[in-house]
């Protein structure tokens, strides 16, 4: 494209943006037909994309009011003439394909049945651009006068089309008081103020459609980049697209255009266009796509008198107004509409007084039953023309209508859009003489009809759009009109895939439709059976649920299920969990990554909702609508987020976007004795706020007897009024049965209001003292089962640790830092957060404590996602297999990658959560190495401060916990090692050729352990195995050793014993639980600063090196710990030469090369080199013949003898000497060069001063 053309448009628009006169910056009043969008006078068609924006801009600049444009020759054809001296405006056209003659394999033309040449559209490798010159109608003489071609729409007509677009989009809309209007990509949800807050209904719809424009950027729609926060370049670019699209849509629907807050983006827009003039072309193209996408959602065509009678228009108007004015009626219409769509029918509505009469249409013909929808949402059912009307509530009507329309269902229903897609693809196939799509689709239809005949499951074929890509989506609908969680997708090439768990997966049997359906039939039918029969979750499922253990963060499938089932119970709907049944073709590796369980939900009438939750092995979950796709970042382990996502979807399902007068919960003060009465009236329990509330939209009159309160008041009153009792732990079940409740905050049992306190007299002995200061009863460890003692101690110690944490971190916004500083707060440069120093009272800093920030009405951070989820998505994309949340503590973590064998860790990452989250990712197997930065929204100042404070506090608490845990383990290790005896003989030592060493000892007899030692020692390996299995079942963590195994001590650089390694007779190595292995090592010989020493991987290698070289040697235990040990020792012994005696995994390297693998090929050598490079050390590597199984210096000594060992050691030391000398020469040269450069710079300074003196002399 011509550079001058692009620059000219960009320059003009920049000036117009600055003066608020760019096309999308000008407001247009609703309800008026203002023909401002440019049209081509030759064709009558409107201009699109950049041409549209360009011509509107030119019209603004030159003062044209006529929106018609025409070429010079076009004007001549109409008998008109361009005035002399008028300048044209350039427009451009892209050509992406061209029509070419179709030829056969021999190069001869292909003719159709009439003997004419067959032509096909061929895609160009590189699109070509063409230019044309046009004139505005005001520049041309002799043109006919402009006619009013667009008829103004009435208010109800334009609002009806807007409602159709919003409803058809599938995007959830949430209304709440306030002035926030935004789209949240993570939940695919729009938030708007309530309708009554807008000046006019047109303003409401214009705002809603503007946010819907943003929603088209979702991956399931047009898939744009929606990252970046307010003030960022990305945010400005996206807002530019939405504003331009709002202009186009506002003109089409005649709802007007209000530029709103565009002033906030002026500078950003100007900068974007100055940096990249072509961005305006891309923005116009996207805006055109947005408006086309949204306008296509409305099936209602413009109402014209020539096509629609006045009577029809009046009926359409009455139907729309009845729905607008009656929320319950509208909700029932949406429910029936949704049912009809799944069954392949359309719903026809006609007004009947203050009711609506409806019937379902199949191929434009009405079928039974007829229904009357009343203002209160109730439905009158007429089975056939001779039957009386039966009045039903919405739930009963849903079941009755489903049964009535079932006999009329077709096996396969194809939407009109899908039919157009099929016709277009088949026409193209006919020209190209191919039939991949046609054959597969024909076979697919036949199989779907057979499936319907055999199993009663019908199919709905719809067009699926993802950006510019189109395909067919086949959904499966059961006899109860329930939409299955599984679906099929077929693209224009006939390629089949399966959509399950929200993700398209290529079928293993794409060549055979019957086999493809076989891939999903079992799973789909099994799922259908569960849904239709409403089976309760079985004990087998619950048992499997419990079999998954909690991870380090306390997450598991069971904890997630308990959380969500409780949320369902508290909000008045039902939850049922079952196994997530997968298609049979999925491989084991992919199966492991899939969710393990699925939760289905039903309303109070036991009608299944199109909402479910998928639960993964690590306890993470994602809640979605059936057949909805999701991204990795939506999967979360946070209970509050899980609950919020569930309630959002369920609310959308139950309320169908209904607008109610009261859009917020109303909390009421209900005593325990009144809870049943309040519950029957419709009150709900808020588990988080610990208070009863009246749901949004409900009439408050029946609840007048109870005082309206805030959740905070409820909690304070509850604590102050509670009658606390002192219940020993062994009597808690008895107290619970009598009705006592547990206060998790005060950690004490209490008597709920309405219960007779005499029942609890035995625990009321210290009543007054407890009520003044409720303190949880001390647990008597003598009365607790021995296996639980450690657990209780650990919990108490951890709580104490948090209280004793050195710093209390604060969420202080930048503008309030001086206030915090004056009160005594300090700033932590590493954590980038303010904190209260130890010993300073927290009370003056209460408003900045992180947990209080949730009460702040934060600015919109709706486009933000959890950094952990976003980082994990990047890690998974790089092939790293991370269980649970990635640990973002600024430290390197090793994890497996795709293709690793059990026990392999070929990936590493490092994550930082402070400020803008960032990280480092490396896949040693593929060679990938990259830096990562969060693309999420830049958080507002309050949110950023809160996140930093929480991250810093969690880090400090975790470090304290780990420090305490490591210290405890170190004490236990010292107790065991102190009573152990030196290993005089052991089969492993014999096998490795190692003599007696004072460092290596044997695990002692359990009778020899000192008092207070909690390590358990089994007398045989069979006994140890049984103990470990029992502990795994009970969830108990403790170190279990086996008497007679080798005992190797692990010290830190300061000489403190931190952990113990054990080695059994077969060579199997184990470590103490909860020990600090990182940086710990076993030392053979005395380390002295300034004297050389060696670092090896294993103990046997280290001892052999020590015995043969007479030098100090340390064992790092494994290659993954080499770098950590090297760092610790370099810090302490800065003057020493350090040699890393690496293992040589030469056989593994040969296999890796043969298989064409990348990344880490020889871990022993490469990890040693990495450590040596960091600490300026030298690597000594043993060499082996191709078929020699040896890998380390001990193997070399054992297999090839002392002479070969010393020969290779001498050779490696010589290489190290050469490297040292080379490095010294390079260092000397660098020093010399630096000195010369310094002298030259000094001379330049002297010369400049001399020149200045001479200049001054000359002036004098």
TrEMBL record:
Could you tell me which residue ranges the N-terminal domain spans?
A: 4-118
UniProt name for this protein: DNA replication primase
Keyword match Iron: no
InterPro entries cross-referenced by the UniProt entry: ArdC_N, DUF5710, MPTase-PolyVal, TOPRIM_DnaG/twinkle, TOPRIM_dom
- Annotated region described as Disordered, given as residue ranges: 1238-1260
The answer on whether this UniProt entry bears the keyword Iron reads no
Q: Where is the DUF5710 domain?
A: 665-706, 722-764, 807-850
State the UniProt keywords alphabetically.
Answer: Plasmid
Q: State the taxonomy lineage.
A: Bacteria, Pseudomonadati, Pseudomonadota, Gammaproteobacteria, Moraxellales
Q: Taking every annotated instance into account, which residue ranges of this chain make up the domain Polyvalent protein metallopeptidase?
A: 161-285
State the Pfam families in the record.
ArdcN (PF08401), DUF5710 (PF18974), MPTase-PolyVal (PF18818), Toprim_3 (PF13362)
Q: Which domain of life does the UniProt lineage start with?
A: Bacteria
Q: Where is the Toprim domain?
A: 1094-1203
User: GO molecular function terms here?
Assistant: single-stranded DNA binding
């Amino acid at each position: 494209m011509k550079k001058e053309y692009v620059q000219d448009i960009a320059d003009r628009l920049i000036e117009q943006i600055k003066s608020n006169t760019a096309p999308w910056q000008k407001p247009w009043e609703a309800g008026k037909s203002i023909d401002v969008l440019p049209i081509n006078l030759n064709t009558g068609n409107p201009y699109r994309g950049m041409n549209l924006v360009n011509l509107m801009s030119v019209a603004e600049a030159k003062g044209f009011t006529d929106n018609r444009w025409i070429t010079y020759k076009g004007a001549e054809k109409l008998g008109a003439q361009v005035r002399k001296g008028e300048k044209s405006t350039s427009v451009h056209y892209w050509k992406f394909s061209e029509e070419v003659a179709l030829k056969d394999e021999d190069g001869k033309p292909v003719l159709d049945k009439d003997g004419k040449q067959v032509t096909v559209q061929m895609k160009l490798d590189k699109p070509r651009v063409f230019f044309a010159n046009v004139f505005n109608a005001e520049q041309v003489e002799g043109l006919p006068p402009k006619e009013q071609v667009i008829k103004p729409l009435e208010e109800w007509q334009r609002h009806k089309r807007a409602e159709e677009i919003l409803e058809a989009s599938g995007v959830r809309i949430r209304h709440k008081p306030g002035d926030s209007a935004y789209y949240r990509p993570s939940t695919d949800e729009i938030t708007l103020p309530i309708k009554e807050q807008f000046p006019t209904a047109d303003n409401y719809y214009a705002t809603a459609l503007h946010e819907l424009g943003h929603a088209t950027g979702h991956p399931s729609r047009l898939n744009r980049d929606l990252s970046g926060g307010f003030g960022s370049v990305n945010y400005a670019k996206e807002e530019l697209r939405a504003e331009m699209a709002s202009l186009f849509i506002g003109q089409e629907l005649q709802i007007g255009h209000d530029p709103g807050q565009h002033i906030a983006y002026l500078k950003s827009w100007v900068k974007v266009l100055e940096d990249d003039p072509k961005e305006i072309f891309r923005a116009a193209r996207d805006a055109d796509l947005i408006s086309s996408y949204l306008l296509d959602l409305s099936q209602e065509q413009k109402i014209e008198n020539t096509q629609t009678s006045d009577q029809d228009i009046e009926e359409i108007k009455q139907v729309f107004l009845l729905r607008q004015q009656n929320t319950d009626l509208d909700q029932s219409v949406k429910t029936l509409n949704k049912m009809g769509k799944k069954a392949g029918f359309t719903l026809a509505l006609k007004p009947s007084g203050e009711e609506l009469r409806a019937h379902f249409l199949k191929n434009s013909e009405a079928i039974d039953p007829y229904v009357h929808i009343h203002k209160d949402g109730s439905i009158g059912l007429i089975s056939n023309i001779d039957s009386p009307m039966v009045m039903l509530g919405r739930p009963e009507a849903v079941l009755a209508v489903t049964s009535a329309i079932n006999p009329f269902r077709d096996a396969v229903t194809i939407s009109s859009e899908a039919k157009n897609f099929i016709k277009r693809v088949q026409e193209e196939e006919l020209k190209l003489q191919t039939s991949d799509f046609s054959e597969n689709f024909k076979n697919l239809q036949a199989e779907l009809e057979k499936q319907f005949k055999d199993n009663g499951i019908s199919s709905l074929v719809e067009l699926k759009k993802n950006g510019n890509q189109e395909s067919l989506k086949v959904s499966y609908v059961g006899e109860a009109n329930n939409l299955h969680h599984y679906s099929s997708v077929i693209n224009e090439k006939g390629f089949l895939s399966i959509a399950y768990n929200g993700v398209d997966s290529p079928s293993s049997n794409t060549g055979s439709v019957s086999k493809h359906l076989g891939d999903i039939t079992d799973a789909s039918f099994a799922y259908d059976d569960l849904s239709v029969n409403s089976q309760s979750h079985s004990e087998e499922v619950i048992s499997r649920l419990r079999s998954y253990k909690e991870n380090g963060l306390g997450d598991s499938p069971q904890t997630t299920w308990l959380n969500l089932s409780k949320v369902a119970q508290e909000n008045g709907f039902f939850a049922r969990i079952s196994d997530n049944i997968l298609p049979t073709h999925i491989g084991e590796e992919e199966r492991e990554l899939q969710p393990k369980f699925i939760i289905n939900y039903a309303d109070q009438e036991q009608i299944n909702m199109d909402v479910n939750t998928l639960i993964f092995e690590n306890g993470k979950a994602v809640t979605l609508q059936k057949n909805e796709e999701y991204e990795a970042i939506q999967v979360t382990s946070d209970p509050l987020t899980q609950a919020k996502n569930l309630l959002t979807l369920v609310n959308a399902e139950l309320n169908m976007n209904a607008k109610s007068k009261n859009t917020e919960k109303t909390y009421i003060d209900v005593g325990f004795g009144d809870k049943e009465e309040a519950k029957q009236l419709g009150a709900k329990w808020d588990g988080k706020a610990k208070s009863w509330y009246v749901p949004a939209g409900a009439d408050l009159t029946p609840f007048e007897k109870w005082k309206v309160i805030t959740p905070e008041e409820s909690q304070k009153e509850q604590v102050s009024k509670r009658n606390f009792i002192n219940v020993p732990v062994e009597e808690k079940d008895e107290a619970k049965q009598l009705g006592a409740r547990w206060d998790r905050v005060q950690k004490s049992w209490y008597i709920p209001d309405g219960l007779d306190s005499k029942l609890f007299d035995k625990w009321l002995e210290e009543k007054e003292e407890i009520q003044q200061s409720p303190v949880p009863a001390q647990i008597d460890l003598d009365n607790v089962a021995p296996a639980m003692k450690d657990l209780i101690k650990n919990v108490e110690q951890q709580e104490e640790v948090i209280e004793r944490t050195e710093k209390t971190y604060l969420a202080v916004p930048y503008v309030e830092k001086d206030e915090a500083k004056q009160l005594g707060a300090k700033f932590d440069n590493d954590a980038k957060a303010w904190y209260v120093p130890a010993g300073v009272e927290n009370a003056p800093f209460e408003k900045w404590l992180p947990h209080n920030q949730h009460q702040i009405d934060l600015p919109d951070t709706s486009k933000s996602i959890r950094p952990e989820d976003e980082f994990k998505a990047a890690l998974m994309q790089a092939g790293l297999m991370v269980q649970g949340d990635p640990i973002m503590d600024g430290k390197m973590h090793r994890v497996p990658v795709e293709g690793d064998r059990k026990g392999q860790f070929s990936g590493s990452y490092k994550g930082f959560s402070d400020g803008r989250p960032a990280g480092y990712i490396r896949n040693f197997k593929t060679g990938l190495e990259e830096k990562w930065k969060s693309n999420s929204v830049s958080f507002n100042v309050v949110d950023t401060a809160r996140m930093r404070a929480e991250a810093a506090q969690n880090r400090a608490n975790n470090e304290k916990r780990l420090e305490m845990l490591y210290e405890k383990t170190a004490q236990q290790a010292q107790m065991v090692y102190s009573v152990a005896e030196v290993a005089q003989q052991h089969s492993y030592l014999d096998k490795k050729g190692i003599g007696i060493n004072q460092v290596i000892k044997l695990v002692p007899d359990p009778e020899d352990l000192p008092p207070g030692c909690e390590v358990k020692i089994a007398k045989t390996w069979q006994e140890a195995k049984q103990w470990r299995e029992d502990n795994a079942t009970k969830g108990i963590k403790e170190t279990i050793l086996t008497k007679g195994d080798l005992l190797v001590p692990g010290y830190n650089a300061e000489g403190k014993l931190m952990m113990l390694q054990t080695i059994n007779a077969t060579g199997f190595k184990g470590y103490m639980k909860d020990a600090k292995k990182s940086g710990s090592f076993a030392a053979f010989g005395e380390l002295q600063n300034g004297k050389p020493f060696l670092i090896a991987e294993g103990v046997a290698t280290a001892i052999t090196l020590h015995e043969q070289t007479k030098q100090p040697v340390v064992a790092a235990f494994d290659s993954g710990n080499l770098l950590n040990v090297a760092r610790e020792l370099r810090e302490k012994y800065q003057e020493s030469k350090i040699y890393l005696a690496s293992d040589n995994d030469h056989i593994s390297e040969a296999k890796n090369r043969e298989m064409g693998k990348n990344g880490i090929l020889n871990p022993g050598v490469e990890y040693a080199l990495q450590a040596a490079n960091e600490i300026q050390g030298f690597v000594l590597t043993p060499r082996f013949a191709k078929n020699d199984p040896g890998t380390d210096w001990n193997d070399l000594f054992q297999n090839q003898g002392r002479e070969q060992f010393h020969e290779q050691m001498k050779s490696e030391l010589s290489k190290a000497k050469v490297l040292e000398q080379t490095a010294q020469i390079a260092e000397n040269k660098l020093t010399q060069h630096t000195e010369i450069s310094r002298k030259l710079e000094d001379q330049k300074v002297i010369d400049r001063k001399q020149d200045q003196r001479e200049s001054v002399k000359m002036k004098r």
